[in-house]
Amino acid sequence: MGYPHPIHPLETPVLSEHFGQPEARTFAGWTARGGYAALRKALSMTPEEIVEEVKASGLRGRGGAGFPTGMKWSFMPKDDGKPHYLCCNADESEPGTFKDREILRWTPHALIEGCAIGCLGIRAETCYIFVRGEYTTPLRILEQAVAEAYAAGALGENVFGSGKRIDIIVHRGAGAYICGEETALMNAIEGKRGNPRIKPPFPAVAGLFGMPTTINNVETLTAVPSIINRGAAWYAGLSLSSPKSTGTKLISVCGHVQRPGTYEITLGLPMRDLIWEACGGPLPGRTIKAVIPGGSSVPILTAAEAEECVTDYEGIAAKGSLLGSGGMIVMDDSTDMVLQIWRLAKFYAHESCAQCTNCREGTAWSVRVLERILRGEGTSADLDLLLDLADQMTGRTICVLSDSCATPIVSGIKKFRDEFEAYLSGARQPALVEA
Amino acid sequence: MSSHQAPAGPVFTPERRARLEEMSRRYPTRQALLLPALWMAQEAHGWVSPEAIDEIASELGLTPALVRGVVTFYTMYHTHPVGRHFIQVCTTSPCLMCGSGEVLKAVLEHTGCGELGATSPDGRFTVIETECLGACGFVAPMLIDDDFLESVTPDQVPEILARYP
User: Which end of chain B is more exposed for a tag (fewer CB within 10 A), N or C?
Assistant: First the structure.
């Protein structure tokens, strides 16, 4: 549902069906809604059967990368005699993204069930759910739900009498966007600085505590119980576009729309239906100017591009951007693109872990050059300088934080160059003044 | 800001040590307890002091330098004392373009903090702007201590602050 709004007819509520219902948070309430049937079913399946079901569903990672989930699970070794780990990435911090928070606070048992099934699929007995430190309310709700699941025998040394052991541990982060990067997340759980690791080795070979590990996003794991319950064919049939984009996706829409919130769509829905219909379109008297469709790290679309865009992995890629996390930032004609791009760059500069030179220097200098432009002190060479910096920040570092900073700058200059030039020529008054 | 106030008592009271040991069964290494232990230090003292760093290092068998390195990486651990109530207002782009700057201004004004990072003269509040709180559809989201508030408007600020004596 378009939480906090009622379900819109254009939505397909699967994950979000029970958002806003406090009773769904309890074990009894979740069971009454059909909860834990999928886990019981999965306990009677082999790991291979679980992985095959998820593969056949076409489910792709919902955290941003869109990697096929079943395939990721299949990378885990068999009969290696080592402990395996599942990590659930609940470090939701990508500007514009606030969908996982709704799962954590409204349907924590759906996530627990997904984590438990994931453990069975990758032959792990332990799952760590890494929740960003700022999500205080979701943390409390999730911890309570985990305790209830243990008390009910859904977790622990003998899950529902199956003889199988599954432990779920909620690990609180402490503020750092970069910990949403999978190897940084593992370092944070290990009690280290959250610096991303060089890959290879990939997590399936040597991940958390050096052991084979799979990392999945909250929404990805939460989609698994319904796939086990209703079958891969049902899930794969949920698509309005391409067989490569199956199932439903939570899209958190924020910014300048009448009804911001978390909407669940069948992949392939026209973006026009989502933004201009379900979300109510622009605020009165305004027109939409730009949409960042997949969290702040993806290229900016103009309103014209967004209006023609199909909301799925391929459709957004065809317009030159990415579905990413599904965090949509809608900007209307009141938006100063240069100012907002500067603020995004400032975000990335603040969040850079600083281990790679190109990121540490690139993000900081991008901010300084953008500030110079916003103060009315920019020169005609500054746009080329920003693009050159962006080039040096793309594809040259351990993780993609640096690329993410460059992306809105490059697409911003490409599509809204006139706004930058208005600052350079003095046609637009400085937005920042020297403190 | 005074750079140092001696913390009141050890982090690891019998109750906290018991919690830590209970937690240790969930991790294969001692170092994995570091983030939870630092949260305990902040819960005990309101910040993570040099004394707490030494105590945690010794408790977990780590060097103080390693612990300090970890503390300084994560933005939510305070490395100096802060006001009784710690306020974080999100000003990342999605919030900023929907007016969170005005909310931050009202918070700075009504707390008496005046500027970002400063503690009010009565020691009651410290205010910072924070990066994306992950509630972009609920502008302005704000954290006061562990209370996560949504959709705060500037005119609500005085009434909200009154709840935090």
Answer: C
